[in-house]
UniProtKB/TrEMBL annotation:
Coiled coil: none annotated. It holds the Pfam family NAD_binding_8. This is Prolycopene isomerase. Transmembrane segments: none annotated. InterPro entries: CrtISO-like (IPR045892), FAD/NAD-bd_sf (IPR036188). Residues 21-43 are annotated as: Disordered. PANTHER family: PROLYCOPENE ISOMERASE, CHLOROPLASTIC, PTHR46313. Gene3D superfamilies: FAD/NAD(P)-binding domain.
Length: 287
């Protein structure tokens, strides 16, 4: 059974080799967080339980006795976006998955909290990957794998920057409209804008042409190289470079460079000099 072990998981397994079924309607078994998610084929199952629920269940059923236990094919520790996606993808392939979460609700950085009547996002307020085109629509692909679809409303603009110096830049969904907007703000930097964002666009299209199933599996990447050699070489060339250094090769206006810093911050939470060029190209991804 695949297991990402944590102190919590270790305690549960030590007390109960057969973890109690979190959906069993038994007084000694806690109700799970969230609910049950079945895969596209209806064979797998995901159960999410909190740290306290798992600990109570382990105490109530020492040694896995009681008759209500259930074996799981995999245990995922943490119900953030990564954990939930991993769990649902396993369930879509027929696995019975238990997700352990130390907080009172699942979601991780996609969660929220309330204070003084206001609701605050715990993590990112911007999410990408809902397009039905290309290969970078990872959220759409993940939802399709479990038989779900999310309806989205395309917006002609994605971000409206209001920066110091009364600089206002509307980031259009369409690449050419965005370039036209930026050139209208910095006409003296037209050539530099076209060169820098041209490189970003080239990297983006290289990424979007690959099936990004695994960037950590050598054999898979080797196969992708033979399918898309030019795209892979493009990515390999720019992999060690950062956006700030490349931008400064073509652009001198400090206000424009500050705008590029702001764009990079959206996708990497750091400025352009600390943002890998491949990450910066994602700022062009408007879907």
């Amino acid at each position: 059974m695949p297991l990402l072990l944590s102190p919590l998981a270790a305690r549960c397994l030590h007390h109960s080799p057969r973890l109690p079924a979190p959906f069993a309607h038994h007084p000694s078994h806690p109700r799970p967080l969230g609910g049950e998610a079945r895969g596209g084929g209806g064979r797998g199952r995901v159960a999410v339980v909190s740290e306290r629920q798992a600990a109570v269940a382990a105490e109530k059923s020492p040694g896995g006795e009681g008759g209500d236990g259930e074996r799981h094919d995999a245990i995922v520790v943490g119900s953030g976006i990564g954990g939930l996606v991993a769990a649902t993808q396993l369930a879509a392939k027929g696995a019975r998955v238990l997700v352990l979460e130390k907080y009172i609700i699942p979601g991780g950085s996609s969660g929220y909290y309330r204070r003084d009547g206001f609701t605050f996002d715990v993590g990112s307020s911007v999410m990408f990957g809902f397009s039905d085109k290309g290969n970078l629509n990872l959220i759409t692909q993940a939802l399709e794998a479990v038989g779900c679809k999310m309806e989205v409303i395309p917006d002609p603009s994605t971000v409206h920057f209001h920066l110091p110096g009364a600089l206002s830049v509307l980031v259009h969904r369409e690449y050419n409209d965005f370039i036209e907007e930026l050139v209208s703000k910095f006409p003296h930097e037209k050539e530099g804008i076209l060169k820098f964002y041209g490189i970003c666009w080239k990297i983006f299209n290289s990424l979007n042409s690959l099936e990004l199933k695994s960037l950590e599996e050598p054999l898979y990447l080797f196969g992708q190289f033979f399918k898309k050699p030019l795209e892979c070489l493009t990515l390999a060339y720019y992999l060690p470079q950062n956006a700030g250094d490349i931008a400064r090769k073509f652009i001198k206006d400090q206000q424009l460079l500050s705008f590029i810093d702001a764009e990079c911050f959206i996708v990497s939470t750091v400025n352009a000099l600390k943002t890998p060029m491949i990450n910066a190209s994602m700022a062009l991804w408007r879907n």
